[in-house]
Amino acid sequence: MTDILETIQRDSLISFPFLGDWFINPPSSFTLFGRTIYIYGVVVALAFLLAIIWLTKNCKRFGILENDLYDAIIWAIPLGIIGARLYYVLFSLDYYKANPSKIIAIWEGGLAIYGGIIAGILVIFFLCRHKKMRVAAMLDLVICGVIIGQIIGRWGNFFNREAFGTETTVFCRMGLTSPDGNTIYVHPTFLYESLWNLALFIFLCIFIKKGKRKYNGQIMLIYLFVYGIGRTLIEGLRTDSLYIGGTGIRVSQLLSALLVIFAGVMLIYNGKRVKNGTLKLEPPYLETGMNEEDAAEDTADDQETAADPDEKVTEEPSADDSDDDSSEDDKDGE
Fold first, then answer.
1. Would you tell me which of 56, 120, 122, 219 could form a disulfide with 140, CB atoms 3.0–4.6 Å apart?
2. Residue 29 in contact with residue 161, Cβ under 8 Å?
3. CA-closest candidate to residue 39, choices 181, 167, 158, 150
4. Can you give the pTM of this predicted structure?
């Protein structure tokens, strides 16, 4: 088995000793119309669906219209998946150079969340530029959907028996028993990350509902800070990390640590700006500071008055005033 796939043990029995002396063997795939469907993909699809439902129900809290949200989703999801795959492939380049046909085999695993986030941010940046929206406002909304996706999506790793950590004796260890009867007890790092993200999501829901969001981009920064702390710690336990070249530096661990520092500094800096009144929560739409429906009405009014660009909206001068107007025009001409 290759180095990339050796951490996937789809045929192993799963046990959690702290829950009792029992084993489970959930299927990692099923057959539909003669094709193999991996549970991992089904779980990820479910995660996307639930994330979209939550975003649709809560977009008004952020002042963003559903149509604009749908545009972001339509572009961000497929390009985000491509970005997540490219990130993974780039940091496993030796393997994929030797096996180019495997580059598109995402059903075998190999999606990096940071690659998806980077691609998603780029998509939202260009989309918001086109729609004259504040990028940070849209990111605050969309990142909540990303967290939902991570909470649920990590359970795809459970069915694949992957994304686990090093061998351990901690009380919450997970047992993996291979078909030959050998058992290893490992850190269930997929579970750690899912629970960490669940706690973060609950906190953010309360934070948003109570009106604690003080500026656009605050939710995104909190996510980068809190998730980054968790990922930095959890990544150090994993056995399937991506590394920088031939070094022992884990890519996601380094990136997470840098994001924690960046987000922490920005949260402190922006907190001071909020206190002194130089930073506040601005409307998501740039041109008018209002929602898109009001903006559309104003645009329609502007189009009516602009039907004749030379036409001035003034009262018709009376005959008695014509001489005075002429003299004023002569003065203006000087």
1. 219
2. no
3. 158
4. 0.81
